Amino acid sequence: MLSGGVYPVKSTFDLMRLWAMLTGLALAAWYFGELYLGAQATETLPMLIAAIGGFELFHYAQDILIKRRQSRG
User: Fold this and answer.
1) 35, 41 in Cβ contact below 8 A?
2) Where are the domains of the chain?
3) Which UniProt keywords apply (predicted)?
């Protein structure tokens, strides 16, 4: 663990999850920016955000299960 409780990136898969998170946040900011400015938002943008969010949610739950199994022995 690094200072401040931050875990180092260990694999290419961890980097992919990091990029998915950043992309999802950027797309969500873009979508809410369009709504705020009154522009017509496409139907594709919320679906992309939901897909990336689902990807992250699945792997977050998987990490919790893996840590639980490791702690039980």
Assistant:
1) yes
2) 12-71
3) Membrane, Transmembrane, Transmembrane helix
Question: What number of other Cβ atoms are within 10 A of residue 69's Cβ?
Answer: 9
**46 neighbors 24 (Cβ within 8 angstroms):** no
pLDDT of residue 38: 92
Q: What are the residue ranges of helices labelled H in the chain?
A: 12-37, 44-72
Q: What is the mean pLDDT of each run of 10 residues along the chain (73 residues)?
A: 70 84 93 93 92 92 87 73
Residue 40: both structure tokens together: 């017509």
Sequence-distant (≥ 6) Cβ neighbours of residue 30 within 8 angstroms: 45
List the structure tokens of 26.
């950027």
